[in-house]
Write a structure and sequence with these properties.
Blueprint (H helix, E strand, L loop, with lengths): L1 H22 L80 E7 L3 E9 L6 E13 L6 E14 L3 E15 L16 E15 L8 E13 L5 E15 L2 E15 L4 E17 L2 E14 L3 E15 L3 E12 L3 H7 L12 E14 L4 E20 L7 E22 L4 E13 L12 E10 L4 E10 L2 E6 L3 H5 L11 E6 L2 E11 L4 E8 L7 E3 L2 E2 L4 E9 L1
Antiparallel strand pairs: 1-2, 1-26, 2-3, 3-4, 4-5, 5-6, 6-7, 7-8, 8-9, 9-10, 10-11, 11-12, 12-13, 13-14, 14-15, 15-16, 16-17, 17-18, 18-19, 19-22, 20-21, 22-23, 23-26, 24-25
């Protein structure tokens, strides 16, 4: 075995030596190169570091170099605030303003020759300036002889809202045309040709009120002026000027203020002329705390003109909240002098005679109290009792010679009145709403037998129902109880020789004026954003009742028309 290994090793080395010897064979020498090669390239001199400095540095220059900055450094305190920051609400895009319909024109016709015309215009949306005008005409002809009546009203108004005060102004004209059509069913031939009457009223009013401020010690003020002229078709004329001022100083929860008013006027007819003027001063102190409002002061009233007297009355009001938004109790004690005017009398009864007696009435004491509040969303209520003592209360009475015209007499002495008033409002939903009001009054006359044309019961109610966005219904009812009227059986002026006459029960009689129920309904239908139609019916029961003796109102009447909005 060893021999074989030796043999194989010897052969391996011999073979390897042969290949090596062959690889190292000597090549023949090459020929020498005789060409000259020239290499060209850019010259880049290289300098030593010491050669770069042409001069030695100035070691004596110790001037400090100040760099110029183009920005400003702000000295601020570093605040370490590790609190959680409130998230800021993202501002939404402005909502598109709704297009307001500011103006409309309404017209309608119906039974009893009814004509209705109405228009309203204003300048539109403006936060600082508001102005507009309103016009209305309504006329109707009843079935009785000359039972014709028409009314017109034109009003122009404006308001300017400034940084410190608000200015208001109004110009108003009213006209009322009618006939003395009263008829006695027992003597139908007494009034064959009724006289015509026209009442004209011009009014100008201006007001300045400071804007509200939340300052606890703010000073509030207001001033108002009102002037009017009134006349009728005959010789009656009346002018009046009323100046009103108000000043209030807030001191924390207290208010100290003064209200003042001056009423100056004159009423003339062909045989009468009366000036009954008033000056009022009402200083007060008001406490307004949480759930409590109390105002205490005096009412100083000075009469001057044809009547002269000085009176001082207490003025106390209180309001206590027992259950917020649900129950409040309130009370009031006050007194005042009421300035009677021809304008107020004709507003209540337009069938007045000429040469009406004008004098003031004194509300010696008035006490009232009650409760009010809400019973939940859509429900509100108020109940109040009151007691008054009134001296020289005005009353209407039929003239002895002209039965279809009314004179004004005064209940000489102190009349006592007890009353109960209730109001309720129920909104079942956005589509259904009902309101109602009740008045019960008990009059105890002073010198007269009865308080003429003063019913003991009055009820009023309104119902509104929206069927859908286009159709709306409404209904109303008015209920009035019986009242009394006085008739002269002899001429009171001749008998007493005074005007107004002193009551003489032997020369007068009391007549009952029956109560009534007046029911009305109406409907509105919106065709589109521009046009809508309406219909209304009054006195559905066709009741032939009278508010004043011998003056029967119209029976059933229906009218309707079209409204255009723009």
């Amino acid at each position: 075995m060893r021999l074989n290994k030796t043999l194989y090793t010897t052969l391996f080395f011999l073979t390897a030596g042969t290949f090596i010897a062959k690889a190292q064979d000597v090549k023949p020498p090459e020929k020498a190169v005789t060409e000259e090669v020239e290499i060209i390239r850019p010259y880049k001199p290289v300098l030593a570091e010491a050669v770069k400095l042409r001069r030695s540095p100035d070691l004596d220059n110790i001037k400090t170099y100040k760099a110029k900055f183009n920005y400003t450094l702000t000295d601020r305190k570093l605040e370490l605030n590790s609190d959680i920051q409130k998230l800021q609400a993202q501002q939404l895009a402005d909502e598109r303003a709704a297009e307001l319909v500011n103006n409309y024109v309404k017209g309608g016709i119906g039974s009893l020759s009814t004509i209705l015309g109405e228009a309203y215009v204003n300048i539109g949306r403006d936060e600082a300036l508001q102005a507009g005008a309103f016009f209305r005409h309504f006329s109707q002809e009843g079935k009785l002889n000359k039972q014709n009546e028409n009314t017109q009203q034109l009003s122009v108004f404006g308001r300017s809202i400034g940084n410190k005060a608000t200015l208001n102004g109004r110009l108003n004209y009213e006209r009322h045309g009618l006939y003395f059509y009263g008829i006695d069913d027992l003597k139908p031939t007494l009034n064959p040709n009724p006289e015509r009457q026209v009442l004209n009223f011009f009014e100008l009013e201006g007001e300045a009120v400071n804007k509200y401020t939340g300052d606890e010690n703010a000073l509030s003020y207001a001033a108002k002026i009102n002037a009017y002229m009134f006349n009728d078709k005959f010789d009656a004329k009346e002018q009046a000027l009323t100046l009103t001022g108000y000043l209030n100083k807030r001191i924390s929860s207290f208010n100290v203020g003064l209200a003042a008013a001056a009423e100056i006027g004159n009423t003339k007819d062909f045989s009468t002329s009366v000036s009954n003027n008033l000056l009022r001063l009402n200083p007060y102190v008001k406490l307004q705390a949480k759930g409590v409002k109390i105002t205490a002061g005096i009412n100083f009233v000075q009469e001057f003109g044809d009547f002269s007297d000085t009176r001082i009355f207490p003025t106390i009001t209180a309001d206590f909240t027992l259950i917020p938004d649900f129950l409040q109790i309130f009370g009031e004690v006050k007194g005042d002098v009421n300035r009677n005017t021809l304008k107020n009398f004709t507003d209540e009864n337009p069938f007045l005679n000429s040469n009406i007696a004008i004098q003031n009435s004194v509300e010696k004491i008035s006490i009232s109290g009650g409760i009010k509040g809400t019973g939940g969303p859509g429900f509100g209520y108020k109940a109040r009792f009151y007691s008054k003592k009134i001296t020289d209360m005005p009353l209407f009475v039929n003239n002895f010679n002209d039965f279809n015209k009314f004179d004004v007499i005064y209940d000489f002495g102190t009349m006592k009145l007890l009353g109960l008033e209730g109001e309720i409002s129920v909104q079942v939903s956005n589509n259904l709403k009902w309101t109602g009001k009740l008045n019960i009054e008990d009059y105890k006359a002073a010198a007269e037998q009865e308080s003429n044309y003063k019913p003991q019961l009055r009820i009023g109610s309104n119902l509104s129902y929206t069927y859908n966005k286009k159709l709306n219904f409404n209904a109303s009812v008015a209920i009035q109880g019986d009242s009394n009227a006085k008739l002269y059986t002899a001429d009171p002026i001749t008998a007493t020789g005074t005007y107004p006459p002193v009551p003489d029960f032997t020369k007068e009689s009391i007549v009952n004026v029956k109560g009534f129920v007046d029911l009305g309904i109406g409907a509105d239908y919106k065709i589109n954003n521009k046009f809508s139609v309406f219909a209304k019916a009054n006195n559905l029961l066709n009741t032939k009742y009278s508010k004043y003796l011998y003056y029967r109102v119209n029976g059933l009447n229906i009218f309707g028309g079209l409204t255009y909005s723009f």
